[in-house]
Specification:
The complex is a heterodimer of chains A (376) and B (290). Chain A is of the alpha+beta class. Chain A is 37% helix and 26% strand. Chain A contains 13 helices and 18 strands. Chain B is of the alpha/beta class. Chain B starts with 10 loop residues before the first strand and ends with a helix. Classes of the chains: A alpha+beta (376), B alpha/beta (290). Chains A and B meet through helix 9 of A and helix 4 and helix 5 of B.
Chain lengths: 376, 290
């Protein structure tokens, strides 16, 4: 799950990471009021779930409350990579002397969180990793005890951060690691960590991704979930308990099991169609789940037909067929549906589909060909 | 011959009294799996389907000398169940549970490694050795005993491909769903090593998918193998940055793409099927060359 910069900073502040004072504003007037409270020059930062805000003009400055209002008016409503800016973070402007990068990602190979530090901050870390990997110091966290303060200082020293940053920065890196572990994060970054001209060390920007599987025990953060402007269907699907990914094509696709659904998308593309979505109904789904999935997929206005591909095991063919028949009445009139069933209850399911005048394919390939042909 | 499981392997079920655990315990018994007991904290002393239930894995291990465990414990307690099994000396742990927080798995893997146990999964359908039995939820009736090892990151895709193999008269030695999570107990390379050493396996089918670099690592290892491997990679149409159902099925930046995996496998001279329907032919050709 993605969260905003201000939320990531809120989490880090609880662990003692210094951040610039400030708040979120939803209107230019609120931004001006926050700037007045802060009493000095401010930065107005778009809060959207995407990187590269600065380049897109989503970060503006204001020396006075009036300028802050104007900056917020410019940023609010702005379109950044397809996302509409609905709120801005207004914080004290700091005079930056140097910028560094602190990050922790979950590493599949070492099967542990890995700390990454670079003395070049404020940049795209993936670019640094690709072009000059020697500039990044990496170290896995031993999950028996977490990142101990001396290890954090050692990493910063090896990354050649200046002496005056080692102590404060080490405490911040330890706090980042603790926040990562206790928040069920899969990524946590402070980019940049700044050294100000007055010698303070602060997190000027922060990013945290929360592991969806951890949300059952991160109840506060789970409430922060919000719809992405560009993708309201995915958000709604999640709320409805469906595993759904929106794609660009016109063939709606539903199946059971992630690998099977992915393979079905590939098959549709192979026979000349364009998948509109990925939807996995999981194992053991009943007719109601199938009904919900079909009516949901049909809500995407791009969808011109739907392919249902089910390998029956604990999912029963007749339940699938019942769900399809239930949903059919509510789908746009004449929208083609092709069902492919195999395994448990497939014959019973096919009989039900035949009675209802629905088409099926004998295997995944035939079903894909039929739906692509039906859409034309 | 086979790897990891035959009809003498003593297996317990953790979470045996739950809905899933109970249902699949019956199914496993029906396939001939040598189930010797189960564990549910608080239900010790009772019996389920004729099997003794224990409060802890340590008690189950002491009473039954179990070698393997199948875990049906819900996500909040699943990593603990894995650590309990490893700590009790269970050498083969199969965790079916989907939805375990990844941080929990980073801790569980330390314990699994310390005890030298092998973990299959989590977020997997388990494994089976046709003619001997199964651990997990794989539909056993689609298999037929034979000489082809099978490994896959996906459940239902495994069933599709196995059904095609069986239909084509190609039997299987052992089949393993390795799990769809970012952190899994054993990777393709681990199983390829076992199949390479197994006299009952002549060739291997490997079904990968987007995310991570296990397929690329496998490609490197296959260069050193004497037995042929046939591969398939799903997710060619998956967009970057989106989780395709499995927590581990995500393209991050340029890593984890289907195209990258297919290319790495082709460099290792592994025939890669464009669609699953080509897999039986590629296997027949590989076997014919032996």
């Amino acid at each position: 799950m993605k969260i905003h910069e201000y939320q990531a900073k809120d989490i880090l502040a609880r662990y003692g990471v210094p951040i610039q004072p400030g708040r979120v504003a939803y209107t230019p007037d609120e931004a001006a009021a926050i700037a007045r409270e802060l009493g000095g020059p401010v930065v107005v930062k778009a809060q959207v779930y995407v990187g590269g805000r600065g380049k897109a003009g989503g970060i503006q400055f204001g020396d006075t409350p009036d300028q802050a209002r104007a900056a917020a008016a410019k940023v609010l409503g702005m379109d950044i990579k397809g996302l509409k800016v609905e709120k801005v973070l207004v914080v004290d402007k700091v005079d930056i002397k140097e910028e560094y990068y602190l990050g922790i990602i979950l590493d599949r190979k070492t099967q542990a969180p890995v700390v990454m530090v670079s003395k070049e901050g404020g940049i795209d870390i993936e670019e640094v990793a690709a072009n000059t990997p020697e500039k990044i110091i990496k170290q896995p966290i031993d999950m028996r005890w977490g990142l101990r303060p001396f290890e954090a200082r050692d990493i910063l020293a090896r990354a050649e951060l200046p002496h005056q940053v080692i102590s404060k920065g080490g405490a911040i890196l330890s706090a980042l690691a603790q926040a990562f572990i206790e928040s069920d994060a899969s990524l946590a970054e402070i980019n940049p960590l700044v050294l100000t001209t007055s010698g303070q060390v602060q997190a000027a920007d922060a990013k945290i991704l929360i592991d969806d599987n951890g949300l059952f025990r991160q109840k506060e953060y789970a409430l922060w979930a919000e719809s992405e402007e560009s993708n309201p269907l995915e958000y709604e699907a999640k709320q409805a308990g469906l595993t759904y990914v929106k794609l660009d094509g016109n063939v709606g696709i539903i199946g059971n099991g992630a690998g099977l659904v992915m393979t079905t998308l590939d098959m549709v593309a192979r026979v000349g169609g364009k998948p509109a979505n990925f939807l996995d109904i999981g194992g053991g789904a009943k007719a109601e789940v199938m009904y919900k999935a079909l009516t949901f997929v049909a809500r995407d206005p791009q969808v011109k037909g739907i392919l249902v591909n089910i390998f029956g095991g604990i999912t029963r063919g007749e339940e699938v067929a019942k769900g399809v028949i239930m949903a059919q009445a509510e789908l746009p009139k004449g929208m083609p549906i092709v069902v492919r069933l195999s395994g448990t209850g497939a014959e019973e399911g096919k009989a039900l589909l035949k009675d209802a005048g629905l088409d099926w394919g004998k295997d995944m390939r035939e079903a894909a060909q039929k739906i692509v042909a039906a859409i034309g | 011959m086979s790897i990891l499981l035959d009809n003498t392997t003593r297996v317990i079920v953790q979470g045996i009294t739950g809905r899933e655990g109970l249902y699949h315990t019956r199914n496993m018994q029906a396939t001939g799996t040598n189930l010797v007991g189960g564990v549910t904290p608080g239900k010790g002393g009772t019996t389920v389907e004729g099997l003794p239930v224990f409060d802890t894995v340590a008690e189950a291990k002491a009473a039954t000398d179990a070698e393997a465990s199948c875990i049906f414990v819900p996500p909040p307690g699943a990593a603990d169940a894995i650590m309990e099994a490893a700590s009790a000396g269970i050498s083969l742990i199969v965790c079916i549970t989907e939805g375990i927080p990844v941080i929990d798995m980073t801790r569980a893997m330390i314990v699994v490694r310390e005890h030298g146990a092998r973990l299959i999964g989590p977020n997997c359908p388990g494994m089976c050795t046709p003619g001997h039995g199964k651990i997990g939820i794989i539909p056993y009736q689609i298999f037929t005993p034979g000489l082809v090892g099978f490994i896959s990151r996906s459940g239902t895709l495994t069933y599709e491909v196995v059904a095609l193999l069986t239909e084509a008269g190609i039997g299987q030695s052992t089949c393993i769903g390795i799990g769809g999570d970012p952190i899994i107990g054993s990777t393709f390379v681990d199983y390829l090593k076992l199949f390479e050493a197994d006299p009952g396996t002549k060739a291997v089918v490997m079904c990968g998918e987007i995310g991570g670099s296990d397929e690329e690592d496998a490609a490197e290892f296959i260069k050193t193998m004497s037995k042929p491997v046939v591969a398939f990679v799903s997710g060619r149409t998956a967009p970057p940055g989106k989780r395709m159902g499995h927590a581990g099925a995500i393209i991050s930046g340029n890593t984890g793409t289907a195209q990258g995996k297919v290319a790495a496998l082709q460099v290792a001279n592994v025939p890669v099927a464009d669609t699953i329907f080509e897999i039986p032919d590629l296997v027949q050709k590989a076997l014919a060359k032996l």
